[in-house]
């Protein structure tokens, strides 16, 4: 498992997909809606006391360098079926020529995993 991330943005030669898991079963998948060059301010409602600037990091995960230049060959939705509280949670798995990246729910964060997904996932290929 790689480190966790709040929102994941993958760029495929100018076409980007954005993924964000929240709570137990909230998954947001959007295309080309986030401006990774822009900056924003986050506030808890009292900006003068508790606010800070957010910025995108262009290459925050050096482990993902192995995916650069590889062709995306398939995408699968993975449904967790491990017989626990996480049952039915959905992960998104990107299959590349020589590797795979799976982005799964880690409760208000995203887990990033390279390689084959856990065998407790049911696979649902997207066509």
Lay out the secondary structure.
Layout: E1 8-12, E2 15-22, E3 26-31, E4 40-43, E5 51-54, E6 72-80, E7 90-96, E8 100-105, E9 110-114, E10 121-125
Antiparallel strand pairs: 1-2, 2-3, 4-5, 6-7, 6-10, 7-8, 8-9
Task: Note the run of SSEs as H and E.
Answer: EEEEEEEEEE
Quantity of strands, as a count: 10
Rg calculated over all Cα atoms = 16 Å
Give the count of structural domains. 1
Helix content estimate:
under 10%
Beta-strand residue fraction:
over 45%
What is the helix tally? 0
Structural class, by secondary structure, is mainly beta
**Spans where pLDDT lies below 50 across 5 or more residues:** none
**Shape category:** globular
Which features does this protein show?
about 130 residues, mainly beta, 5-stranded antiparallel sheet, 3-stranded antiparallel sheet
Q: How would you describe what is shown here?
A:
The chain is mainly beta and 127 residues long. It has one domain. It has no helices and ten strands. The strands form three sheets. A five-stranded antiparallel beta sheet has the order 9-8-7-6-10, with no helix packed on it. The protein has a three-stranded antiparallel beta sheet with strand order 1-2-3, with no helix packed on it. It has a two-stranded antiparallel sheet with strand order 4-5. Strand 7 (90-96) and strand 8 (100-105) form a beta hairpin.
């Amino acid at each position: 498992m790689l480190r966790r991330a709040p929102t994941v943005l993958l760029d495929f030669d100018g076409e980007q997909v954005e993924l964000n898991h929240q709570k137990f079963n909230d998954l947001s998948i959007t295309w080309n809606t986030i401006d990774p060059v822009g900056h924003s301010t986050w506030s808890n409602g009292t900006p003068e006391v508790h606010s800070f600037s957010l910025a995108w990091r262009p290459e925050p995960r050096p482990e993902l360098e192995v995916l650069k230049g590889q062709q995306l060959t398939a995408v699968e939705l993975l449904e967790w079926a491990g017989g626990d509280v996480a049952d039915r949670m959905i992960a998104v798995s990107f299959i590349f020529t020589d590797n795979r990246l799976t982005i799964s729910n880690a409760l208000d964060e995203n887990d990033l995993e390279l390689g084959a997904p856990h065998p407790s996932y049911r696979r649902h290929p997207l066509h």
